[in-house]
What does this fold into?
Amino acid sequence: MINNQLFEKETSVRDDRFGPAQENGEGEGHSELWTRDGFNGASSMVVRPHYAPAYLSAQGLHVPRRFQIGKLAAPGSDDPSVLPLQVARSRGGVYLSVVSLSLPMPYVVRNVEADELHFVHHGELKFETDCGVLVASAGDFVCIPRSVAYRITPLSGPTQSFILESASPLRLNPQTSSGMINIARDVHYPRIEAPVPGEGETTLVLKAEDGPTIYRLPQDPLAAMAHVYGSAPVWKLNLANVQVGTYLPHGGPPFQFLTSDDGQVMLYTLSARITQRPPIHVNADFDEVVFYHRGPGAWGEVSEPGTVSIVPKGVIHQGPSEQVEEGYLAWLLETRPTLRLTPAALEASVLLETSLYGVHPSEQHG
Ligand SMILES: [Fe+2]
It folds into this structure.
């Protein structure tokens, strides 16, 4: 059951940033919510005299950070022969990567360890897959299940994609059984196209936990004549077509639309909606990653498209209001495995303050 009543309680308390305790009057305070299993499990709320997300400094790996994917030296822009740049990894089979292609992939890849969910942030890309071809553009999620081979060709750029890998199968699992996603209208599947005559030797990369294995094939493995049985496991869906949900009049937590079979991964829309600001809370079991796709409105201190924020489990945070009249598009990933930024992402990232998700003051003052 969703703990909506607990979110409503927060509406009666102050949410000012870093407000000192002595400014609170008698009987006032800041509610702090602790929850298990994302927004779906046991919960507990206490009232504190201070604003708990505030911190002076943090050293170590389990810290909230933010980075801009456009500022990463992602491979692919001038060297298409390398795999996407990993930005976060875990010991639980969940990985995050960034890729920026300007030339067609010179090989076909088959990830034998994970389902891949590509979020196209910029540009237009052609995905040739084992089960046909589809074209994706900005705002599209493209799901490529484990061991489905694919090759990506940029059609118009610059292109930028953010990739989630999950060892457990990913599937659309909207919180409301109908209405949140118009499956018939908005979920698209690849189509078999006539094979191009004369396609010759091809490199196939099998992507495994311990690195790539390279095969040379005498033909293009993606050439196909017809789909004759079953449903194509590859699909695409645009973020703008995942409708937001709310519990009026107070709002409540965002709505989930995709999960992994083992419950280790959950995706939510975090786009603008009618709601009140989240409570100060501790997510006991899940790291939270927010991808801000585009405005025009800002989400708190986040206004640059392609900004990724990561708040590890157990770190007290609040987050900005999602009620932004101008509108914006964003999504939230929750992962039970603890994510750690890779050196490349760490280098490009800054410490995050967990109220409005701006740059932490300690970064601004050295
Ligand atoms: Fe949260």
Q: What stands out?
A: Residues 1-26 have pLDDT under 50 and may be disordered. The helical segments are 4-10, 183-186, 343-348, 361-364.
